[in-house]
Design a protein that fits this description.
The protein is built from seven helices and 17 strands. The chain is of the alpha+beta class and 365 residues long. The strands form three sheets. Strands 2, 3, 4, 5, 10, 11, 12, 13, 14, 15, 16 and 17 form a twelve-stranded antiparallel beta sheet that branches. The termini are far apart.
Amino acid sequence: MNFRRQIFSFISVIILLFTNCSINAYGLDIDAKKNSSLYIFCKECPNEYVEYARNNIEQYFGDIIFDSNEVSIGSPFTFSNDYADIFYFPVIDNGKIAMLLRVFKVDEELTAVGSKFLCDELMKYSELTTEENPLYLYMNGNDIIGEISSNKKILFEYPEEMKFANSEFVSYSSYNDCDKSDCCIVNVFDDKIATIEVGVSAHESVSNYISLNLMEYQTKEPWCAAYAASTIIRTIQADSTCLVRTIMNYYYSNPSGKSVSNKQIMDFAKKKYSLKVKHTMYSFGNQAIKEIDANRPVWYCMKSGNTLHTVVLRGYHASNGIFSIWNPWYKYYETFKMGGTYCPSTYTSSAYNFKYYSAIYNWTR
């Protein structure tokens, strides 16, 4: 009888052990799936874009501080619009999208912009999507839309001045509406195209970054020049209370719909704060480095067609010619090649290709 009890106890222990192993394994599977799926309906990425991202993405990291010592590049995706030609490469850090590298072509040459813009918005869709029910990320006019199962949400609204609206705008409504050879559904956390060790190499002594005093961001008003100037004035501690309306109200009793020029910005800086600002339309790379090393951000104006847009130049990595900017549209810093082309976060690089136009520098008394 005792022998039978011993055998029964032994078998029970074995069964319990296997049961626990199964439960733990299942629990690990569930944990492993957390933040590991985000299916997006998009265009298939050409190999040349993948190679560009694999070979160049590290130089666009700027002064981002990662949680891990190793990050990976996930599967690239596009917006779900027709004519989408900007490919977004997610940098995965500790199970989260830490940065997006948007790669695009200008004059048949590949280039890119590194940014944290849309990372948090996309992570909110993690685990809500499946291969059968992916996220549709597209632009409708000036709005970036996220859509799952016909539930639409505006993720971001560009200022009305930009006029992204396209008379030929058509978004794919389903996988069946497109040419299968051109479309795909990707899980951005799958099929990692590269793994990168990060650390000191990303923040070498050849780089320098100014932390801007960011307090407000551009809404629908065409006030980018004033947003950039007021941010610089706060950052250099000329006036910690200077806001965009401080500048706009200096010139207009009702500034809605109006903008300010580079001459007005300089006039404001000189008369109100006695700043010895200078203006240039010449090549600016070397001078920009000197300004940043002196802890002076640069008012940096770019042009696309007849459209002007102003950002703040606030950092650089000299060994690769990558500069860091703050675009008043976004809450994050971005990186792009000095003298190169800047393209905002949208679906096509043909909408706006911004290139250097002029700069205001020497923000000092």
